[in-house]
Amino acid sequence: MNWGKATVVILVVFVLFIGSMSVYMFRAPADDYDHQYYEDGLNYDRDYNREEQVTKDHAQPLIEISSDSIKFIFPQIINGQVKFMRPSSDARDGVYPIENKDGTPVRLSTAHLEKGKWQFAFDWKSGNKAYLYHQEVY
Questions:
Q1: Cα dist from 5 to 1, 10, 14, 85, 132, whole Å
Q2: In angstroms, what CA-CA distances link 86 with 110, 123, 138?
Q3: Residue 8: phi, psi to the nearest 5?
Q4: What integer pLDDT is reported at residue 68 of this predicted model?
């Protein structure tokens, strides 16, 4: 085989490789990135300050899980919401209001929840302070 034929074969193989990679890339699913990354970046300081407020005031909720319910115990009177997030499936996510006007623990039923890993995102206010707390639970 002479140099001319070898060069043509190498060029054809290279073109086929680039073509197949192009087809593969166009068939791949779209990347799941945050379309609101700019807004989230602007709100980062606000969320960071709310998370730090939980640490300063020792306001972390105590989470007790039983077979039929989840109990959240807060050290102060609160009004807010908790977001249940399932890492394996976004379809299972849900937001639930939480409030303890008289300081009693907040109970939520676990009948609709599957067993496994969950992430809780607590967002509440107590007095004039806002709090944000994340907890991972199995």
A1: 7, 9, 14, 60, 67
A2: 14, 17, 10
A3: -65, -45
A4: 84
Region of 8 please: left (phi>0), alpha (psi -120 to 50) or beta: alpha
CA distance 57 to 36: 31
What's the pTM? 0.67
Cα-based torsion angle of the residue sequence 25, 26, 31, 36 in order, rounded to the nearest 10 degrees:
130
Among candidates 49, 72, 61, 67, which has minimal Cα distance to 113? 67
- Mean pLDDT for back-to-back runs of 10 residues, the chain (138 residues): 88 97 86 77 89 92 87 90 86 86 84 84 91 90
DSSP character string of the chain = --HHHHHHHHHHHHHHHHHHHHHHHHHSPPP---TTHHHHHHTHHHHHHHHHHHHHHT-PPEEEE-SSEEEEE-SS--EEEEEEE-TT-GGG-EEEEEE-TTSPPEEEE-TTPPSS-EEEEEEEEETTEEEEEEEEE-
Cβ within 8 Å of residue 25, ≥6 positions away: none
Residue 84's CB is within 10 A of a number of other CB atoms, namely 19
